[in-house]
Amino acid sequence: MGGAGEFASKNALILKIILSKHSKTALRESFGADMRTTMMTRQLLPLTIWIAALSASAHADEDRKWTNESQVGIVKTSGNSETESYSAKQANSFTQGSDVGKINASYLKTAAENATTGKKEETAFKWDAGLRYERIFSPLWSGFVGYLVESDKYAGYQQKHNTDVGAKYTIAKKENYDVLSEAGLSSTLGS
Q1: What span, in angstroms and rounded, lies between the C-alpha atoms of 155 and 177?
Q2: CA angle at residue 42 from 30 to 159, to 5 degrees?
Q3: What tens digit of pLDDT does each residue of 107-160 get?
Q4: At what angle do helices 35-56 and 24-31 cross, to 10 degrees?
Q5: CA atoms of 186 and 178, how far apart (whole Å)
Q6: What's CA 27's distance to the chain center, in Å?
Q7: pTM above 0.90?
Q8: Among 75, 91, 92, 159, which residue has the least CB neighbours within 10 Å?
Q9: In the chain, what are the domain boundaries?
Q10: Across-strand partners of 76?
């Protein structure tokens, strides 16, 4: 069972390998004093390159399509007990030719009044954020690669990193609905 210690030790091992190849002084000179900024830059570099490539391509404007879906929810109840729930969800998609990029995020926090103490206590707290790239090969087939980071402490994990790769098959596509099937491999690292 992978706990927080296992996740931290894998990251520490990676950091030790980097530090054994370069001195701390050379790393500071090459990447700046803040190592967290350097790690964030390395993780965001592939996304930045992909966005730049899409922006620089010479496709016609009618070949590009943006979609957006946003949700915000606030629920407060009172009576025998008081509860409150806050949620938000964002999903964006950009299609250009045979390339599709997707970004999504969600947040949920719920609190309820403790019947014994009368104080409000958090009962749910979860969030996630993900990126997904799809390549359309034909009207029926496409491939995808995705990354999702998520947290849900009441489900027993502080943070998980999920990486997916697979294929998608379109069973039916109509004006009002799509029926799709996906199969792939997923890797999860986290505590």
Answers
A1: 33
A2: 130
A3: 999 999 888 888 889 999 999 999 999 999 999 999 999 999 999 999 988 899
A4: 40
A5: 24
A6: 29
A7: no
A8: 75
A9: 1-56, 60-190
A10: 84
